Amino acid sequence: MHNFLRTSKPFLIVAIVWCFIAFLILFGVSKSVAGFVWLLGFWFLSVLDIFIIAKLVLSLLSFVSAPSGPQTEVIGDSKKPIFLTQIILWLVAKLVCLGLFGACLFLAGESAPKLGVFLGISTIIVVPLFGGLWWSYKELSHARAA
Description:
Distance between the termini: 23 Å
Strand content: under 5%
Structural class: mainly alpha
Order of helices and strands: HHHHHH
Number of helices: 6
């Protein structure tokens, strides 16, 4: 878990900075409370979706790299069923998150401020892009130092 927190730190910082920038953009254009609510709602859903995808990929990698074969069946130390259960749970969480996105977009309709919805949904592109750039720069600098 410690490694996951260390790895996800650039993404969390980018998400918070993007939320602040989006609030400033929205505040400069419109001071409606509804726009801020939609921005914060879609920002939260986007960050939750990114977190779920990260945990799903981590579970998939753990499942693939878990030892299997005759040695683990004799010892009974295979963790593949645990990882498979985690994969299924994260997939269900991902589907629920997609359903929430669809429901919120349906509820937004024509009445929701378009800029607030756009800035909130753009979180799902901005955070992985810039968080990934920052993370890869950080990881490459650690590799060069070693």
